[in-house]
Specification:
The complex is a heterodimer of chains A (about 160) and B (about 625).
Chain A: H1 14-27, H2 34-45, H3 50-60, H4 64-73, E1 85-90, H5 93-96, H6 100-111, E2 124-129, E3 141-143, E4 146-148, H7 156-163
Parallel strand pairs in A: 1-2
Antiparallel strand pairs in A: 1-3, 3-4
Chain B: H1 5-20, E1 33-38, H2 41-45, H3 48-61, E2 68-73, E3 85-88, E4 92-94, H4 102-111, E5 125-126, E6 129-130, H5 137-140, H6 158-163, H7 168-176, H8 179-189, H9 201-210, E7 219-224, H10 233-240, H11 242-256, E8 260-265, H12 270-285, E9 301-306, H13 316-323, E10 347-351, H14 352-364, H15 366-370, E11 380-387, E12 393-398, H16 403-410, E13 420-425, E14 431-434, H17 444-449, E15 458-463, H18 468-482, H19 488-505, H20 511-527, H21 531-535, H22 538-555, E16 571-573, H23 583-587, E17 593-594, E18 602-603, H24 613-617, E19 623-625
Parallel strand pairs in B: 1-2, 7-8, 7-10, 8-9, 11-15
Antiparallel strand pairs in B: 1-3, 3-4, 5-6, 11-12, 13-14, 13-15, 16-19, 17-18
The chains are: A alpha+beta (about 160), B alpha/beta (about 625).
Chain lengths: ~160, ~625
């Protein structure tokens, strides 16, 4: 849950906005439409900057503060853009007791960013996640869709090198 | 196309044989091979999709496509050995399958008919031939009810589910039973909520049926927001047998008088969501969901709602608030959801695993179900075994099985010959069970009596290398993150608890802090609105109860007995063992190790960062942390 407003300028295209408006149109008469709209808006833009929230507010009639309230409540909604490669380290219990905390700290050190942050070149973003359910492979991290399991701290350089 | 009951039965009769052969090894003369490959999250993460691709390629190449079916199933349970592949009729169990082994396995087994024992799971290979999966230590004490079809059927094909008597329970209910009789059957079975609370399911249904007479609308909800980190049984049911949940929800709808269902599922489970979407589509196509099901006047449909990563949404009122499109904050009860739930209408909410038991109870009868388990906890329970254990995976055992049986026999014990220290159940709401309670029969009431809880069924094993203060801190970090902030005792209290724990792990705690912490725990429990706050202090209380000496070691001796809390560690070189090879000095990032070649080295404690790099590098075991 990122509670700070992004400092990176909004770069939405008119095509993205068209898609967003279509999504809103198809949902806005359903009960409880806000969550599905936000989820699809995040798929379109990759995150939910205030500009996007304003469009949703204007189109659905929900007050902006309600939308902001919902966005900041759920961990999955991001106010900041993610990196080209999203690294998630599982900090679920099974991974944690097998040392995923050390792996997470090592990544913070290697990438020079905090959890939830993104490297200045926009390449990597780092976050902790709570159990992706691959407990048999603990400790686990994912880079976008790729899953890396049975890790030790020494594996990190090799993994990062693949994406550099 | 919409199917009548007769057509449903015809599909079942046609498919049944080919599905049932996958439950037991046999030397069936019918040599049509069925190759089952696990497509659950665990095995997919270790590459099972590539295995399937390669299998199809090799089968094609060898021209045996008409003699072999490759079926992508749900989870077999033994995730530690993934990717897993089982070939029937023999029931040959190939574990940790690699892509490059496939050509040989296809040639030897599927073309030449010789089971390739080289790649089989070692325990199944005996002098007399191969052992059935059901006779291995991991499976033989298990009793699969909720996971019955997981790893057996193709979850993306409704016909396979129908072949296991799928949708027969729904047909029976709506054509032969009165809603009251359905509720009575569930009550008689003794089924209790598998999401953690353990509330009698039949009671919930009865309340929702009767409490508001003539309600214009009611809802059936399914809680698939499996938030307990380390529990993944609900996901496995959804991935491996999604139709069982749809069928049970429709049965519940008939019982309470609802025509609309919602499944609230974690967005972090893409495979489960995908298969649910397919399943709902197929059920609608067959007319099993929709209007006038099986020619009766019963209507029922189901929609999916995705969560967005908030643990508190596992709480029933928070979940419903979230479906309505709000911040998922809980609200006071009463009124209970059975009276005023989703959109203010009477609603029942059950967990995935609870639903997975329902169709079997209807078909086999309440007595069949209540014959399993203990006096007050009937049936079976699925546990997600994880942490320091050899056979990580999903196990389903009758209630009342002892922790020892689960950890030592089914779980295969602890790796590296380490000593069992505790098992954690109930996730962030639960507690630790120490070795002294190893023989406790696991059921709802026994676990509560020793300060833990069943929870959704995560069972994380810890060994002597895990620090219990650190574990308590880990869970408090989780609850601080996930507290919704509505109640002050939970929002502020858990934060203060975490601060004290942090202080203790940094060696700055006092005995007074421990007492203060304990007092705060009871305060938070007594004054929070929902289950999250009421149970958040449990990890602290239960570790204090069973491992108080570890806390005392941290605050009095300034020592972490398990060697985890870095601030309390000190690294030393044993001069008798040190050969002066300089490997440690070269790897030390802080330049804290001094000494010349062939003389014992010394660690400068002021410079040491306690990173542990030297220990890993030392070939002589001369460096120790205390």
């Amino acid at each position: 849950m990122g509670s700070t407003i992004s400092s990176i300028p909004f770069a939405g295209t008119s095509e993205q906005e068209k898609k967003l408006r279509a999504v809103i149109d198809s949902h806005k008469n359903e009960k409880g439409c806000l969550m599905p709209i936000l989820q699809q808006a995040q798929e379109i833009y990759g995150y939910l900057p205030i500009e996007v929230q304003k469009i949703i507010a204007a189109e659905t009639g929900y007050p902006l503060e309600k939308i902001y309230g919902v966005v900041t409540f759920y961990a999955q909604f991001a106010l900041n853009p993610k990196g080209q490669y999203k690294i998630s380290v599982c900090l679920g219990t099974a991974c944690y007791v097998k040392g995923s905390g050390d792996i997470y700290n090592k990544l913070i050190e290697k990438l020079g960013i905090d959890g939830g942050g993104c490297t200045p070149d926009g390449k990597f973003s780092l976050e902790a996640c709570r159990c992706i359910g691959a407990c048999g492979l603990a400790p686990v991290l994912t880079v976008n869709e790729d899953v890396y399991g049975r890790l030790t701290v020494d594996d990190i350089d090799d993994i990062l090198a693949k994406y550099n | 196309m919409k199917k009548s009951l007769e057509e449903l039965n015809a599909i079942r009769d046609k498919i049944k044989g080919q599905v049932e052969v996958r439950r037991e090894s046999s030397d069936s003369a019918d040599k049509k091979y069925q190759v089952l490959v696990c497509g659950g999250t665990g095995c997919t993460s270790s590459g099972s999709a590539k295995i399937i691709e390669k299998l199809n390629e090799e089968i094609e190449k060898n021209g045996i496509s008409d003699k072999v079916d490759v079926i992508k199933t749900g989870c077999f349970g033994l995730c530690a050995l993934g990717p897993i592949m089982i070939v029937y009729p023999e029931g040959a169990f190939y574990s940790m399958v690699k892509e490059e082994e496939i050509p040989e396995i296809v040639r030897e087994h599927l073309v030449n008919g010789h089971v390739d024992t080289k790649y089989l799971y070692k325990e199944t290979v005996t002098d007399e031939g191969i052992k059935s999966l059901n006779e291995t230590n991991f499976y033989k004490k298990q009793h699969r009810v909720a996971l019955r079809n997981c790893g057996v059927i193709n979850p993306e094909n409704i016909d396979e589910y129908i072949g296991t008597d799928g949708y027969q329970a729904l047909a029976k209910v709506i054509t032969e039973m009165k809603p009251e009789d359905v509720i009575q059957t569930i009550l008689d079975s003794g089924l209790r909520g598998r999401g953690g609370g353990g509330f009698p399911t039949g009671m919930k249904w009865k309340l929702a049926r009767n409490i508001v007479p003539n309600a214009d609308q009611k809802y059936v909800c399914c809680n698939a927001d499996e938030g307990d980190p380390g529990a993944f049984m609900d996901r496995s049911v959804l991935e491996g047998d999604p139709h069982v949940v749809l069928e049970a929800m429709a049965i519940a709808g008939y019982a309470i008088g609802a025509n609309q269902g919602y499944i609230y599922v974690r967005a972090e489970y893409p495979i489960a969501i995908h298969r649910l979407e397919i399943a709902i589509g197929q059920a609608r196509e067959y007319g099993i969901l929709g209007k006038g099901i099986f020619g009766t006047d019963f209507d029922f449909d189901i929609e999916l709602r995705l969560g967005a990563g908030a643990f508190v949404c596992g709480e029933e009122t928070a979940l419903m608030t979230s479906i309505e499109g709000n911040r998922g904050e809980p609200r006071p009860r009463p009124p209970f959801p059975a009276e005023k739930g989703l959109y203010g209408k009477p609603t029942i909410l059950n967990n995935v695993e609870t639903y997975a038991n329902v169709p079997r109870i209807i078909l086999n009868g309440a007595e069949w179900f209540s014959a399993m388990g203990t006096e007050k906890s009937k049936g079976t329970k699925v546990f997600a075994l994880g942490g320091k254990i050899n056979n990580t995976g999903l196990v389903e055992v009758p209630m009342g099985t002892t922790l020892r049986e689960v950890v030592e026999e089914i779980g295969g014990g602890i790796p590296g010959g380490k000593k069992f220290k505790a098992a954690q159940t109930g996730g962030p709401s639960g507690g630790c069970i120490p070795a002294e309670h190893f023989d406790i029969p696991i059921d709802y009431d026994n676990l509560i009596a020793i300060g833990s809880m069943m929870g959704s069924g995560g069972l994380i094993v810890m060994d002597e290398d895990n620090c219990m203060v650190d574990i308590a801190k880990f869970f408090l970090e989780f609850t601080v993150d996930e507290s919704c902030g509505k109640c002050t005792p939970c929002r502020v209290g858990t934060k203060r608890l975490l601060e004290i724990l942090d202080k203790i792990t940094r060696g700055q705690g006092t005995l007074e802090d421990i007492d203060k912490m304990e007092e705060l725990c009871y305060y938070i429990k007594a004054n929070s609105l929902c289950g999250l706050g009421q149970t958040a202090p449990n990890p602290v209380l239960s570790t204090l109860k069973f491992f108080r000496d570890e806390y005392v070691a941290h605050v009095v001796d300034k020592r972490c007995p398990a060697g985890v809390c870095k601030k309390l560690l000190s690294f030393e070189v044993d001069p008798d063992k040190c050969k002066g090879c300089t490997a440690c000095a070269r790897v030390c990032p802080a330049g804290a190790i001094e000494g010349s070649v062939k003389t014992p080295h010394v660690i400068n404690k002021d410079k040491c960062l306690k990173c542990g790099a030297c220990i890993e590098k030392c070939k002589f075991g001369a460096i120790s942390k205390k």
